[in-house]
Design a protein that fits this description.
By secondary structure, the chain is of the alpha/beta class. It has 11 helices and 16 strands. It comes from Candidatus Andersenbacteria bacterium RIFCSPHIGHO2_12_FULL_45_11.
């Protein structure tokens, strides 16, 4: 018999909401583990009800075994529907299960939605701080949960940012424009991109639409939604990925470029390598696109940090399994 601790969204939020420093450090720990190759991370499994389903309509299973720092195994099970916000739901929701690697018995189940959103935002911040020491104008396309989270952080914690140019087809964000003078509501994505030093996509785009002439300078492009930039943007930029092996398998724009022989592994740099490896002093002065598919390693290490803080709390609910 074993008792599994249940860590719901309110308890997760009590630890990490408003504490991006903790999440960033957890993600940095995960990236160091990635660089040291002290993990086993099988390919993601995508579950869709049709081969013609919208790219954002899927459930993904993301397992990993961590061999250093956080000695744990786990899986994130994250479901998404691009129409969920129309029904008052978050686009994505997630559960994270942690297992004791000594026995493989589950030890905790956590709400994973906030963990997933904050570790994704942490990746943006880590990449930006590594690749652009100075930036004043940020464009954010898509103003759902991730877009709002990025906007809040840049407006409140980055005094050098003078303008945050936001565009969203559906999600309202007038409250942010009223709260922060840096936030500008743009009528088109083209307007948002004009003059931006950093571009962040957090949309539910189903096909690519941003051509090179929309980003003609030396911008840093954070391609969180993975579908917005066309292949010529990739081939005309330095490319940074979180994990080459996983990126080359996911049915996104970068994989199309790889399949056509337009992007080779030698054309890319893994983020962990430019943070901790021989490339840590390399400069990327031209247009650079960061294509973070998202790794289970980041989610599970962050969840493990939360678990460490609450595991001895006898007030947490549990349930018994055989």
């Amino acid at each position: 018999m074993a008792n599994i601790i249940l860590i719901d969204k309110s308890r997760v939020a009590s630890i990490i909401d408003g504490n991006m420093a903790l999440v960033k450090q957890s993600v940095l720990n995960a990236l160091r583990i990635h660089y040291e190759q002290a993990y086993v991370q099988p390919s993601k499994v995508y579950l869709q009800d049709s081969p013609h389903a919208h790219k954002a309509d899927r459930i993904i299973a993301m397992p990993v075994h961590v061999k250093s720092h956080a000695l744990v195994s786990g899986i994130k099970w994250i479901g998404s529907k691009h129409t969920n916000p129309q029904h008052g739901l978050n686009r994505a929701s997630a559960l994270i299960v942690l297992n004791d690697p000594g026995t493989n018995v589950p030890i905790a189940v956590l709400d994973g939605a906030l963990i997933s959103a904050m570790r994704t935002t942490a990746i943006s911040l880590i990449a930006i701080e590594r690749l652009r020491t100075e930036f004043r104008t940020v464009a954010i396309l898509g103003m759902g949960r991730l877009g709002r989270m990025h906007t809040n952080i840049f407006a409140s914690e980055y005094p050098s940012v003078q303008e945050i140019r936001c565009f969203s087809q559906h999600a309202p964000f007038e409250d942010l424009a009223r709260q922060f003078p840096q936030v500008m509501k743009c009528d088109t994505f083209e307007d948002a991109l004009k003059g931006a030093d950093v571009v962040i996509t957090t949309t539910t785009a189903n096909s690519s639409y941003i051509e090179p002439h929309y980003v003609p300078g030396d911008q840093l492009l954070i391609n969180l939604s993975l579908m917005d930039f066309t292949i010529p943007v990739f081939t005309g930029s330095d490319i940074v990925v979180d994990d080459w092996r996983q990126c080359r398998k996911a049915e996104k724009v970068l994989k199309s470029a790889i399949d056509q022989g337009l992007v080779l592994q030698a054309d890319t740099h893994e983020l962990s390598n430019i943070l901790f490896g021989p490339m840590k002093h390399k400069h990327f002065p031209g247009r650079t696109i960061v294509n973070p598919l998202g790794m289970a390693l980041e989610d599970i290490v962050t969840a493990w940090e939360i678990y460490q803080q609450v595991k001895d709390d006898a007030s947490l609910p549990t349930f018994e399994i055989e």
